[in-house]
Amino acid sequence: MPASPSEHAPIEEAVIIAAGRGTRMRPSTRVVPKEFLPNFDRPLIHSAIEEAIACGAKRITVVTSDRSKPFLETYFAPLDEEERGDSKLGSLRELLERVEIQWVKQPEAKGTGNATLYARDAGVDRTFLLMLPDMIFTGTPPGQALATAVSRFGGSAISVTTVGPEYYDGWGIVTGDPVEGGLLRMRDILEKPGSAYTAPSGAGINGRYVLTPGIFECIEEIQRQGKTVKGEVNLTDAMVLLAQQEPFHAVTYDEPFYDSGFPVGYLTASVASALADPGQREAVRAALLPLLEG
Fold first, then answer.
1. DSSP SS3 for 197
2. Residues 242, 156 contacting (CB under 8 angstroms)
3. Cα 251 to chain centroid, rounded
4. Shortest CA distance to 137 belongs to which of 255, 22, 266?
5. Which residues of 138-155 are buried (b: 16+ CB within 10 A; e: fewer)?
6. Is the backbone of residue 80 left (phi > 0), alpha (psi -120 to 50) or beta?
7. In CATH, what class is 8-293?
8. What is the full per-residue pLDDT of the chain (294 aa) written as tens digits?
9. Reduced to 3 states, what is the DSSP secondary structure of residue 272?
10. Using omega within 30 degrees of 0 as the cis cutoff, is the peptide bond preceding 27 cis?
11. What is the pLDDT of residue 5?
């Protein structure tokens, strides 16, 4: 079994993809980039950076778009004297003190694979934690178990959750060979296979990865092959190629998490994050119960 979270080997480099168009969250994302929508009391990108720090990150590279870059520059600017004394900004102050944040722009929206490639331009040259910030984890960060798997077996790792057929239309499904409880040696990724995948359950990708720099050459190779979907380069194709070159394991994550990339999921994620805050839980419950009982 993977080691417990307290035993994980830290991954000091993290990359967050914040260059998407947020089409599932329109019309809100016509004005505000998806990663700056609030997750209860802080932007989604803030929550993602806190999670990366919990996995050991010391430097975080955010891949941005033209739309998100001004928001990042404003939100992560140094606090002024008045702000430093504001307790409501305590979590942001701590974040700015604990980690180096840099950003690099993806000039065109050409998919997660292409966005990941730009991290190399920002100097990412070692094993890194890759995060999609619209996935919200209120328990143990999955990156910790991924780091442990990489420490034990080398190569790269991907976090997966056991899902049923109702998810096959929208999720990538990992196939592979069992190694031990909750761990697969990855062979292939079926991108949104739908009814073509007939197993009663599958290992669905949940947006957290630990990847070696070898992924960059694999993405370039996929681009050279012209292997795109609607002009976008899928990261999954590059990961399958990388799995042919080095150990690549899928680690099962069995704690709750939430996809905030569509309206109902977004609302659920925000409520779950609020209920996970010991200082806010009772007030939030008291506010929600009359609505649910009405």
1. coil
2. yes
3. 15
4. 255
5. bebbbbbbbbbbbbebeb
6. beta
7. alpha beta
8. 333 444 556 799 999 999 888 888 888 888 888 899 989 989 999 999 999 999 999 999 999 988 888 899 999 999 999 988 889 888 999 999 999 999 999 988 888 899 999 999 999 999 999 999 999 999 999 999 999 999 999 999 999 998 888 888 888 899 999 998 889 999 999 888 887 777 767 889 999 999 999 999 999 999 888 887 777 788 999 999 999 999 999 999 999 999 988 999 999 999 999 999 998 999 999 998 888 886
9. helix
10. yes
11. 41
Q: Which amino acid is at 179?
A: V
Of 238, 210, 225, the C-alpha closest to 142 is 210
Question: What one-letter code names the amino acid at 202?
Answer: G
CA angle 258–260–67, rounded 5-degree value: 145
Q: In this structure, are residues 104 and 98 in contact, taking their beta carbons and an 8 Å threshold?
A: no
d(CA 269, CA 40): 8
What is the pTM (predicted TM-score) of this model?
Answer: 0.90
CB 9 within 8 A of CB 57: no
DSSP-assigned states of every residue in 91-152: HHHHHHHH-EEEEEE-SS--HHHHHHHHHHHTT--S-EEEE-TTEEESSS-HHHHHHHHHHH
Q: How far apart, in Å, are the Cα atoms of 32 and each of 15, 27, 29, 71, 274?
A: 21, 9, 5, 9, 21
Question: Are the CB atoms for 194 and 168 separated by under 8 Å?
Answer: yes
